[in-house]
Amino acid sequence: MKRIASIAFGWLVAITAAHLSLNVDWNVVRERRLPIAKRKLNVAYIPVT
Amino acid sequence: MACPVTDYIASHSRSGHQFIPRMFQGFPEIKEALMSNKMQAGFMVAPMAIALRAQGVPIKIVYLGHRYGSAVVVAKNGPIHTFADLRGRTIAIPSRYSDERLIVFKALKQHGMSGKDVKMVEMAPPDVAGALAADAIDAFSMGEPYPSQAEMAGFGRVLFHAREYWPDYISCVLVVRQDVIDHRPEAVQVLVDGIARSGLWLDNPPRRQARREHAADFVGRYYFRQNPALLRWALTKPLDRVLYQPLTPLRKDFAVIVDLMRETGVLDRPIAFEEYVDPQFAERAKHETEWRYEPGDATAQ
Question: Which ipTM did the prediction report?
Answer without folding.
Answer: 0.89
